[in-house]
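re: the backbone from monday

yeah here it is again, tokenized this time
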């Protein structure tokens, strides 16, 4: 089986019929690619696909899918990747490309496939897929421009890069060994920003504002903030009391948090984020040395008090 960069007639085998695997399979189908999904439960998979079930080729014979595919994508749980890879290794050949979608794992988890002669890589789509409907809403947009961070063997990336670009992704190559830090950065930006907004809603609720109403009220300013970051970068987009050196405001916030019924984690979160905001404001020349000293004393002192 020879693999070329066209991919249009060669079979793409996706192992795993969860939200990510199915959304990628439908995306491949929409872009005119020959794709088959290996799954064990046809009824459950068709139920998940609903009206789109007729668009995909499903196969419960894993060996058949592996032997017939030039590119194999392991869209399974991170903890299952190594075991599934070992399971399929005997049916791979030296022309097969094997990749997975895990964020923190690199291509070394596919060692059994590499030992069998396949070309291996790891490829992580930098977007959030809470469910199949959300994934399809993102990926089936023809100009979704989702980033795909890749690492692995050059021979695999030479094939996978144009393949994913055909699906609308912007590919970026990582150094092997950097995936964990890369994924930590992703989690900070996506998952933890969600956690910060949730914490913001809890604080607002303590102030007597309906949490759901407040979260919805944040949407315009959050969109504007993201637009500013996209256009001007994070440093130039920093605003608020720390960027202004407003010591009184920061002190008042901490006093109010202390006086509230919220647990200490909210104070810790406010203090930790505030300390990083000071660093940003310093880099942006928004604060003089006295303002930095006083703000750090307030926030760092708060953090030390919490630990003692």
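seq for it, each position gets an aa:
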């Amino acid at each position: 089986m020879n693999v070329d960069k066209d991919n249009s007639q060669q079979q793409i085998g996706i192992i795993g019929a969860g939200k990510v695997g199915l959304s990628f399979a439908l995306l491949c189908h929409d872009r005119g690619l020959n794709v088959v999904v290996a799954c064990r439960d046809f009824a459950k998979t068709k139920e998940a696909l609903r009206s789109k079930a007729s668009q995909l080729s499903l196969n419960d014979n894993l060996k058949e899918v592996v032997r017939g595919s030039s590119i194999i994508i392991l869209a399974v749980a991170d903890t299952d990747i190594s075991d599934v890879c070992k399971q399929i290794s005997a049916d791979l050949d030296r022309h097969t490309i094997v990749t997975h979608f895990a964020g923190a794992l690199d291509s070394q988890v596919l060692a059994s496939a590499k030992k069998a002669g396949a070309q291996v890589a790891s490829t992580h789509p930098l977007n959030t897929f809470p469910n199949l409907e959300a994934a399809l809403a993102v990926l089936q947009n023809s100009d979704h421009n989702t980033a795909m961070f890749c690492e692995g063997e050059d021979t695999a990336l030479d094939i996978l890069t144009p393949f994913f670009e055909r699906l609308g992704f912007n590919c970026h190559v990582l150094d092997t060994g950097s995936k964990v830090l890369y994924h930590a950065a992703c989690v900070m930006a996506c998952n933890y920003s969600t956690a910060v907004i949730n914490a913001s809603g809890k604080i607002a609720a303590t102030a007597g504002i309906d949490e759901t109403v407040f979260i919805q009220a944040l949407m315009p300013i959050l969109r504007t903030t993201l637009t500013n970051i996209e256009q001007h970068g994070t440093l130039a987009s920093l605003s608020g009391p720390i960027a202004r050196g407003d010591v009184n405001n920061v002190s008042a916030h901490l006093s109010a948090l202390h006086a509230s019924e919220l647990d200490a984690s909210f104070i810790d979160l406010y203090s930790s984020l505030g300390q990083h905001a000071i660093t940003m404001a310093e880099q942006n020349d928004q604060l003089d040395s006295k303002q930095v000293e006083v703000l750090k004393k307030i926030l760092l002192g708060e953090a030390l008090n919490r630990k003692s």
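The longest strand covers residues 119-126. The beta strands are 11-15, 34-38, 57-59, 71-74, 97-100, 119-126, 147-152, 170-173.
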